[in-house]
Design goal:
The complex is a heterodimer of chains A (489) and B (325).
Chain A lengths: L31 H12 L2 H18 L3 E4 L4 E4 L3 E8 L1 H25 L4 H4 L5 H5 L21 E8 L5 E7 L6 H14 L15 H11 L10 E4 L8 H11 L3 E2 L4 E4 L2 E6 L2 E5 L1 E4 L22 H6 L4 E3 L10 H4 L2 H9 L6 E2 L3 E2 L3 H9 L4 E5 L9 E2 L5 H13 L4 E5 L5 E6 L2 E6 L5 E4 L3 E3 L5 E4 L13 E8 L7
Parallel strand pairs in A: 3-23, 5-13, 6-7, 6-11, 11-12
Antiparallel strand pairs in A: 1-2, 4-5, 4-20, 8-9, 9-10, 14-17, 15-16, 15-17, 18-19, 20-21, 22-23
Helix pairs in contact in A: 2-6, 3-11, 7-8
Chain B lengths: L3 H32 L6 H5 L6 H7 L5 H9 L8 H14 L6 H15 L8 H25 L4 H29 L9 H13 L3 H7 L6 H10 L7 H19 L5 H15 L3 H7 L1 H24 L4 H9 L1
The chains are: A alpha+beta (489), B mainly alpha (325).
Chain lengths: 489, 325
């Protein structure tokens, strides 16, 4: 049941309906910040809010906080739409998320060490061998390779949603090259400029230490890292749509931003081409996929990588973050096994639940999916960015029939999940302030320990009623506030 | 230690901005020439700037104010236009984003957007001068922001050297074109009309009043050429730029213990000897055009020396040519 609207100002017509509201639908949240935000939203005029929003997006454009879309003739820089109304997480909510993310990351690293090592999890029949060894992202080159401190996934992003009851659920693990953290930090800087009044006495936790933390974790897992390892960030180049983020992270860490052509491998060691000649590199935070890392081992047509890199890596002379072959752990099929893997490796109950998932590769799951297609979300296993996702209740008969054929033709390539009524957050839209669906991607860094950035990327589906938050599908972002415990400083 | 690719990007970012500024200066003064010129063919001479005539004639039937101005200001397909120069400056800046200041990137970004928004209306009589002023200011804002915010490490030296090479090169081109454009009109030499045109050459290089202070009595093509080439205090003179290159290369080598750059330094020595060891009269007698041509070629070779020693690409020729386009 929706509450009768009793608010004034911009929120007077706000109604989150059946969905959990991140900002207002919270009973028992006594933190004064909720009151501050509500008061601000009741007093600021729509015009003023819109002016500030436009100014922020212009700033982002001018500062180059953009992703670039290249066409044949031109390079168009676009700003990820930014909504000024923050998404707030209380200290107690964050405690759950923080612990849940750490548990998940620990499991992913143990799983990877296991499947590229002795393979207990397969012999114990927790996960079918085929799902691991037959996985397109399983890299046989990694079998028997030692990774420093067993940290395969240095940087992990876990996509989390909230259901109608307000419960957190993991939607997806991102253990390859998760992106978006630059927006977490830039959104905060933008917010502080655009709406400083909102922060009054807020006790919002800072997101500024991500760069130093990541650099430290990379140093902790660098081979022979006694002292000062030479760490670089490898980007596909200026044409990559996430280039801004690569620039941002290199600057935040104070390390060189390099491309494959800037490096060369001699005698299984990696060197950087500098104005003074070649300089040894010890650790590479790479933002290119496995497939493109080394044309001698993976895709021969890759011009982005470094010939011989895998040889240097296997010889232990260079560390890659994330390790090669982590994609097998964040696959949508392996995802379904994560709760079981958490129990297997850690002997703990999962802190964050999965969304109930049916594997079409299994008879039971396939039958259930085909019988209930109209009420399920069907997702291809290998895609990302929201591509190929079919939301049953929002699809036409023809679309459902089409999907049914695809699933029957290649069941192993699909999973299905019930539709999650994602939580909403008040968002400035053309019609005023309206509820829009959001998700959350916290970022975890692992060196000697795992640390979770207190915040995260809140993506918001700006189209009315849309459940798809991906930027490629009309998504924007919000600043994500994690509050200090009350009375905390 | 600085990445070779970043050194190269800094070098070219500076060159492209400098090139755009000089082009705006040249076109602006050409505008003044043309307005009171009895010779409508004068627009053709400007196409000699980068030997652009054949390329221009491929796509244009008429050489006149409108077509040449459009070609050099707005034409995105013309690699020697102002919009192209700023486009490439920005692409180099994009590669350098981890090293340059946020303000530098932001300014180039905004400037680039303003240029992209220009239309043929901005090249009309009423607005053209303002358009050139906007380009000059954009370039100068870049230079000023860079001076005030760019961290003084190795990349700064490559930036400065690139800017000085380009500026020296552009001054020789300005002089070359205008000297020959103005001299053949025998009847006018020494007349008030001619002096007026030389004044505007100096003005386009922001050197008119400085020249007045140095040579209050005489205004001759020879002394003006000498001023633009040899004056040690005028910021756009070839001699001052070459001195800056010399100092930049020496500082770079000594501060960062670099062994490369000796060939470049030798070439700079030769250029300095050519400039300082001769009087302007002797240069004029043996042929100003030949002198300027030799100088431009040497500056080009200097760029190649630097690329070979510091940028280390396998294919130096094709790379520097592709950037020079």
């Amino acid at each position: 049941m929706s509450q009768p609207p009793t608010r004034s100002g911009l929120l007077r017509n706000y109604d989150s309906g059946e969905y959990y509201c991140e900002l207002l639908g919270v009973s028992g949240n006594t933190h004064p910040i909720y009151e501050t935000i509500e008061r601000q939203l009741s007093t600021i005029s729509e015009e003023e809010l819109r002016n500030r929003a436009v100014a922020s997006e212009n700033d982002m454009f001018d500062l180059g906080i953009t992703f670039t879309v290249y066409s044949e003739k031109s390079a168009i820089d676009r700003v990820l739409p930014f909504d000024l109304i923050p998404r707030v997480l209380s200290a107690s909510e964050w405690e759950i998320l923080d612990a849940g993310v750490k548990q998940r990351v620990a499991t992913i690293n143990l799983f990877l060490a296991d499947i590229y090592g002795s393979g207990h999890v397969i012999r114990d029949k927790v996960v079918p061998a085929d799902l691991v060894y037959g996985n397109a992202n399983f890299r046989k080159e990694m079998q028997g390779i030692k990774v420093p401190k067993n940290v395969y996934v240095t940087i992990c992003g876990i996509d989390i949603v909230r259901d109608q009851a307000g419960g957190f659920r993991v939607l997806e693990d991102n253990a390859r090259t998760p992106s978006g953290v630059s927006y977490v930090i830039e959104n905060r800087r933008m917010m502080l400029r655009a709406w400083p009044e909102l922060f009054e006495g807020s006790g919002v936790r800072s997101v500024d230490s991500y760069g130093p933390r990541l650099r430290q974790a990379l140093a902790e897992t660098s081979p022979g890292a006694n002292g000062d390892p030479h760490i670089v960030l490898l980007t596909p180049g200026t044409y990559n749509s996430a280039y801004f983020e690569h620039v941002f992270l290199a600057r935040e860490m104070g390390i060189p931003l390099v491309e494959g052509r800037d490096m060369v491998v001699n005698d299984d060691k990696v060197y950087l081409r500098t104005i003074a000649g070649l300089r040894r590199v010890h650790t590479i935070y790479r933002r290119i996929d496995d497939d493109f890392l080394d044309p001698l081992v993976f895709r021969a047509d890759s011009a982005l990588g470094i010939p011989g890199l895998m040889g240097a890596y296997i010889a232990g002379n260079v560390q890659l973050a994330n390790a090669v072959g982590t994609g097998v752990a964040d696959d949508k099929a392996i995802y379904a096994y994560m709760p079981r893997l958490i129990r297997y490796y850690l002997n703990q109950d999962p802190i964050l639940d999965n969304v109930e998932t049916h594997l079409c590769g299994e008879d039971e799951g396939l039958a259930f999916t085909l019988d209930n297609m109209k009420s399920l979300v069907v997702k291809p296993v290998g895609e990302s960015g929201g591509y190929g996702v079919v939301i049953g209740p929002r699809s036409t008969e023809a679309e459902i029939e089409d999907t049914r054929k695809k699933v029957i033709a290649n069941p192993g390539n699909f999973i299905s999940q019930p539709v999650v009524g994602l939580s909403v957050c008040p968002t400035l839209c053309a019609e005023g302030i309206e509820p829009r669906h959001v998700d959350l991607r916290p970022f975890a860094i692992t060196g000697n320990d795992t640390w979770v950035l207190p915040g995260g990327l809140t993506r918001v589906a700006l189209r009315k009623n849309s459940l798809v938050v991906n930027s490629s599908q009309g998504g924007g972002s919000k600043d994500t506030w994690v509050l200090l415990p009350e009375g905390g400083r | 230690m600085l990445l070779a690719r970043h050194a190269e990007a800094a070098f070219w970012m500076a060159r492209y901005v400098e090139r755009a500024e000089n082009l705006a200066r040249l076109l602006d003064v050409q505008q003044v020439f043309a307005n009171d010129s009895r010779d409508p063919g004068s627009w053709g001479s400007i196409l000699a700037l980068n030997s652009d005539e054949p390329r221009f004639l491929e796509t244009h039937d008429v050489v006149d104010r409108a077509s040449v101005t459009q070609f050099y200001v707005l034409d995105q397909d013309n690699p020697t236009s102002i919009v192209s120069a700023i486009h490439w400056a920005r692409e180099n800046a994009r590669a350098l984003r981890p090293l340059i200041s946020t303000e530098m990137w932001s300014q180039l970004n905004v400037f680039h957007r303003r240029l992209q928004a220009l239309t043929p209306l901005d090249l009309g009589d009423a607005r053209l001068s303002r358009t050139y002023a906007m380009v000059k200011e954009g370039c100068q804002a870049h230079t000023g922001i860079t001076e005030g915010t760019f961290f003084r490490d190795e990349s700064w030296y490559f930036y400065s050297i690139g800017r000085s090479i380009e500026r020296a090169d552009q001054t020789t081109r300005l002089l070359d074109i205008k000297y020959h454009q103005l001299l053949p009109r025998g009847a006018d030499v020494g007349s008030a009309f001619d002096i007026g045109q030389w004044n505007s050459v100096l003005r386009s290089a922001a050197g008119y009043y400085a020249y007045r202070r140095m040579h209050s009595q005489s205004m001759s093509p020879g002394t003006i050429a000498g001023f633009l080439l040899q004056n040690r205090a005028f910021p756009r003179s070839v001699a001052l730029c070459v001195n800056d290159i010399d100092r930049g290369l020496n500082d770079l080598r000594s501060r960062y213990g670099l062994r490369g750059g000796s060939a470049a330094l030798e070439r700079v020595d030769e250029l300095q000897a050519e400039l300082n060891g001769r009087t302007i009269e002797s240069i004029l007698i043996s042929g100003l055009h030949e002198f300027l041509d030799m100088f431009q070629k040497s500056l080009g070779l200097l760029g190649i020396d630097i690329a070979r020693d510091f940028f280390h690409h396998e294919d130096i020729q094709s790379q520097s040519q592709s950037q020079a386009q």
